[in-house]
Amino acid sequence: MYRKAANVLLPILALAASFGPGLAIAETLNNSGSSGHCPTIAPGPVAIYDLDNILPSVVSQDVVAVDAIRNTLAQYPFAIDGKNYDRLDKVFTQNAVVNYSAPIGVLSGLPAIKTIADGLAMFNRTHHSYGTQYIKICSPSSAIAITYYTASHFLTPDLGPTFAPDTQALYAYGQYQDTLAKQNDGTWKVTYRNLVYQGPLIIDQNS
Ligand SMILES: *[C@@H]1O[C@H](CO)[C@@H](O)[C@H](O)[C@H]1NC(C)=O
Ligand SMILES: *[C@@H]1O[C@H](CO)[C@@H](O)[C@H](O)[C@H]1NC(C)=O
Ligand SMILES: *[C@@H]1O[C@H](CO)[C@@H](O)[C@H](O)[C@H]1NC(C)=O
């Protein structure tokens, strides 16, 4: 049976679902269709209500760039789920900023982003899966992307007293709001990411 992860001891489980109203968009919107302009979504985050208000409909754009960005974003689960945290350098620029929301908060710079390893060390395995996705090329060297994710965190039965003995997994639901920049080597990388929760953290218990 699934239960909300209320009153569980580990700090990561204390993460509150934070899908409240987002911060104001940083600059005047420019929804000029396919001409390439995008709203600024960093530092954000953008309230989910506002996404369809501010994100322009895509008429036509550079699909080669879109495909490169989609593959860059795919390399985040590979690094996280593979516990190969050094490879986050394929996803983020050296001075990228990630707002993981409370209680992890804002991690500035790639070395800080890699410390997400500490918070995930308690989980034996993880599975980050993407769903709904929007990618908009804003200029030849800039883009934004919204990517829904489900993150499953699997526990071993013998991790100690901080989890109920019958707890098998922790599930998180949310979206990444990414700002990306094309690099000198032609790759696309995330310069700013907001992790926005879209539901409560849920633990799975056998009882
Ligand atoms: C929006 O984009 C159009 C087309 O490039 C440009 O002419 C206009 O100045 C822009 N408006 C704002 C407020 O940036
Ligand atoms: C980080 O994200 C949280 C949750 O979306 C938001 O409340 C907070 O204002 C953000 N912090 C910064 C510094 O942008
Ligand atoms: C997960 O748990 C199994 C069984 O205890 C262990 O063999 C394996 O090394 C663990 N994997 C990780 C990534 O911790």
From TrEMBL:
The keyword Signal applies. Residues 65-193 form the SnoaL-like domain. Transmembrane segments: none annotated. Keywords: Signal. Residues 1-24 form the signal peptide. Gene3D superfamilies: 3.10.450.50. Pfam families: SnoaL_4. SUPFAM superfamilies: NTF2-like. InterPro entries: NTF2-like_dom_sf, SnoaL-like. The keyword Signal applies. This is SnoaL-like domain-containing protein.
